[in-house]
Write a structure and sequence with these properties.
Number of domains: 1
Order of helices and strands: EEEEEEEEEEEEEEEEEEEEEEEEEEEEEE
CATH architecture: 7 Propeller
Distance between the termini: 37 Å
CATH topology: Methylamine Dehydrogenase, Chain H
Shape: globular
CATH class: Mainly Beta
Helix content: under 10%
Strand order of the largest sheet: 1-27-26-25-24
Number of strands: 30
Structural class: mainly beta
Largest sheet: 5 strands, antiparallel
Number of helices: 0
Mean pLDDT: 85
């Protein structure tokens, strides 16, 4: 039986029937306060394929005020079948994918409701939705796809180590053909776009994470000082040219794992260290001035975490648990601002079920939002 524990409210929003949580200090993490579980509910649970399959949803992409796409599949990392469906906050509608595909869908990007792109890290393909049907945009015979950014139907970037080429892990689509991109782009792991002339990306070096920026013609490394030294980066989110977030982890020589965020305000980089013992996942925009990050706690118990931070520090988080274990892969704030949707999976006696969780939100009075 699923057990959901909401440990705090999100800054700037109040989950319905829940208590509100205040922002933590400038760089300090603090214990989360327990609040009502009535604020967090299961939106949908689905199982795909054989009973022993580990079903899960990996990516959520909002495409309208009340709509989004959710992607995933069965048995990530192993013999898999991809899944795509549309979610409106209450109803899940399956969407047919091209026949014969294998591999868990691991990333997606949507410039508009009629222009949606999805990729499979191990399946080696990119899919495109044109408003009516899904089609295979390109396949690779070797390598992994770790990042996908679509600015428009004729401007799509794909990243991954040796994704189909021995010399480059970056590919660009101009609406007609795909071109391998050499140089700095070949080291990019994940990316996030503000516009076609302002794309931010991360890669991992021997000393920690590196940040790159594309100005429409060239990729250049961004100076980050010591902010990402020793950080194993996992994701990047560029909300604007002066509001960029990077998520990752530090691992001590003794093996202690800590979640870390870094922020660019247009002038300087700031590192938000924490005492949170969890592996960082994906980033998502929260209420104005804040960012959300999914995480997986270090330890034998499988639990999903949703954390929130601002440049002032960390806020308490939300924990999602089930009897046998669960995990949260992605999170998105609905464009109407009335709910928060999280995707992931729940362990079962035989395998696992895919799940979407919903947090109804109401705006705080202006005087309480600080």
């Amino acid at each position: 039986m699923l057990r959901i524990r909401c440990t705090a409210a999100l800054v700037g929003f109040v989950p319905a029937l829940a208590l509100s949580g205040a922002v933590a200090g400038p760089v300090a993490a603090r214990p989360a306060a327990k609040v009502s579980v009535a604020s967090f509910r299961v939106g949908v649970i689905r199982h795909y394929g054989q009973p022993s399959n580990a079903s899960g949803y990996s990516v959520l992409v909002a495409t309208g005020r009340h709509s989004s796409w959710v992607f995933g599949g069965t048995n990530p990392g192993g013999p898999s079948v991809p899944v795509a469906a549309r979610w409106n906050g209450s109803t899940l509608t399956p969407s047919a994918l091209p026949a014969g595909l294998t591999g868990f869908i691991s990333d997606a990007s949507a410039p508009s409701a009629d222009d949606v792109w999805a990729a499979s890290e191990y399946g080696g393909y990119v899919l495109h939705w044109n408003g009516q049907r899904w089609a295979v945009a390109r396949t690779w015979q070797r390598g992994l796809i770790t990042g996908l950014v679509a600015i428009s139907a004729n401007n799509v970037w794909v990243f991954g180590p040796a994704a189909g080429s021995a010399t480059s892990g970056a590919w660009h689509y101009d609406g007609t053909s795909w071109t391998a991109v050499t140089g700095a782009a070949s080291s990019v792991y994940r990316a996030s776009a503000v516009s076609r002339r302002d794309i931010w990306a991360i890669s991992l070096t021997g000393s920690g994470g590196a940040v790159w920026r594309f100005d429409g013609s060239r990729w250049r490394r961004v100076r980050t000082g010591s902010v990402l030294r020793g950080v194993e980066v996992t994701d990047i989110l560029a909300i604007s040219s002066h509001d960029v977030w990077v998520a990752g982890n530090t691992v001590s020589q003794a093996g202690a794992v800590r979640l870390v965020l870094a922020h660019w305000n247009g002038a300087v980089w700031t590192r938000l260290s924490s005492k949170i013992q969890a592996w960082a996942g994906r980033l998502a925009a929260g209420s104005p001035g804040t960012v959300l990050v999914t995480a997986t706690p270090v330890g034998p118990a499988a639990t999903g975490l949703v954390l929130q931070a601002s440049t002032f520090g960390w806020a308490p988080g939300i924990s999602i648990q089930s009897a046998l274990g669960s995990g949260v892969s992605d999170i998105v704030l609905a464009r109407d601002g009335r709910s928060l949707w999280a995707s992931g999976g729940i362990l079962t006696d035989l395998g696992g079920d895919a799940a979407i969780w919903v947090i109804p939100l109401v705006r705080r009075p202006a005087g309480l939002a600080a």
